[in-house]
Amino acid sequence: MLYCLILIFIDEFYLKEHDVVYTADRIGLFFMFSVILILTVRALYGSVQEKNELIQEIHHRVRNNLQVISGLVEMHSGSGKENLQIILSDFQNRILAISEVHNYLYKSENYFEIDFVEVMDKIILNLSHRLGKRSIKIETEAESTFLRIENAIPCAMIFNELLSNSLKHAFSSDMGKIVIRFHKEGNKYRLQIEDNGSGISDSKTWLKPKTSGFKLIQLLTRQIKGDFQILSDSGSIAVLEFNA
């Protein structure tokens, strides 16, 4: 850059006869292009840095998801072979819950946050169809709410477990109602799933879980440092709260 500036001075003052205004214009033009060049280089450097960070984030997510899948396989490995069909169906639904989060990210320009309500809607459609419970009425009371990816996947899996549990066990017939609420209260998120089914005889059973579903809920709740409880009153109410 300094070399170019020296050439301009030599050209203007020693090789040609131009007035001061013309020379100033040439120098001004040079500085303008220099500034554009500097800004372009900085923008390209920032883009490279952003892509490197994104690649690292993708590797981190893949590793975490593989760990989750490995944990699910280990959790199911101790189950009896007589329930193999049910086990495989539950395992597939859990994987699909994870995939819905990544499907949202794939279609979005935001790689770090997701609109969790959209993911919930996809999980609702998937479970209603796969479990053959489309006659059960499901209402959602939630507005567009964004979650960071590190909370979105555990929360999606917990939601999948709770909704699946209500659809499979809450109702003696194919008729019933489930109300889902999700919103942010101050610095906390609150997910609530309420059904008007038969309820749970012991609402504290999840504290010492015996089923893979409640074990998974307990594990994931700890992962996001949340609080989980089940209430039984003319049905069951499951509540998950965690910090933003």
TrEMBL record:
Which Pfam families does the UniProt entry name for this protein?
A: HATPase_c, HisKA_2
Entry's Gene Ontology molecular function annotations: ATP binding; protein histidine kinase activity
Q: Which PROSITE patterns match?
A: HIS_KIN (PS50109)
* Reactions catalysed, as given in the entry: ATP + protein L-histidine = ADP + protein N-phospho-L-histidine
Keyword annotations of the record: ATP-binding, Kinase, Nucleotide-binding, Phosphoprotein, Transferase
Histidine kinase domain: from which residue to which, for each copy?
57-244
Enzyme Commission no: 2.7.13.3
Q: Which PANTHER family match?
A: ETHYLENE RESPONSE SENSOR PROTEIN, TWO-COMPONENT SYSTEM SENSOR PROTEIN
Please identify the protein, giving its name as recorded: histidine kinase
Q: Which organism is it from?
A: Leptospira interrogans serovar Copenhageni str. LT2050
